[in-house]
Amino acid sequence: MTWLGAVPAWCWWLIALVLIAGGQQYRVVIADGAAADARANTARADKALSDYRLEVSERDRRAAAQARQEEQRRQAVADKEGESARQKLELAQGRAAAAESAAGGLRGEIDRLRAGRAATCGAIATQQRQAGTSAVVVLGGLLEDADRMAGSCAAALERSRIAGLACEAVIDGMKASR
After folding, report:
1. Residue range 104-129, pLDDT digits in tens
2. Tell me: the pLDDT tens digits for 119-159?
3. What number of helices (H) and strands (E) belong to the chain?
4. pTM reported for the whole predicted model
5. How far is CA 54 from each of CA 9, 45, 65, 113, rounded to the nearest angstrom?
6. What is the C-alpha to C-alpha distance for residues 73 and 77, in angstroms, rounded to an integer?
7. What is the distance between the alpha carbons of residues 145 and 129, in angstroms, rounded to a whole number?
8. Could you write out the DSSP letters of every residue in 124-176?
């Protein structure tokens, strides 16, 4: 018999059981280590994700604040130029009213000259008087019409010029910060 035969069979079963249990325990320890590593990696990834979300939200907040600030600056420029244009339009309307008043005086003078012309032409022959009167009447009418048209054109052009300058100033003001 050999020395292997001197060991009872139940010992061999016990040795096999101890070896299997030890192998299983070793696998459990290795698995626990791998699980701990996985938990640590997950915790690091969660922290990194949380930090990234915080960074993105802060960046979005700053961008929104900057956009609000730029919008307020542009609105202030537009309001300032709008007020300036309104004041210039009021001034132009005042000038147009003064010009219309002066034109009214000129029309009155033309009417007075027509009346004077009609009175002085009494001694001239009827044909000549009618021709002279009609010429003065036609010229006076043309002068009145031209004066009215020039006044309305001047007022429209002044309003257009003021509006254009206001638009340019608003655009220039908005481009200032770019």
Report:
1. 777 777 777 767 666 665 555 455 55
2. 665 555 455 555 555 666 777 777 778 877 887 888 888 88
3. 3, 0
4. 0.51
5. 67, 14, 16, 87
6. 6
7. 24
8. S-HHHHHHHHHHHHHHHHHHHHHHHHHHHHHHHHHHHHHHHHHHHHHHHHHHT
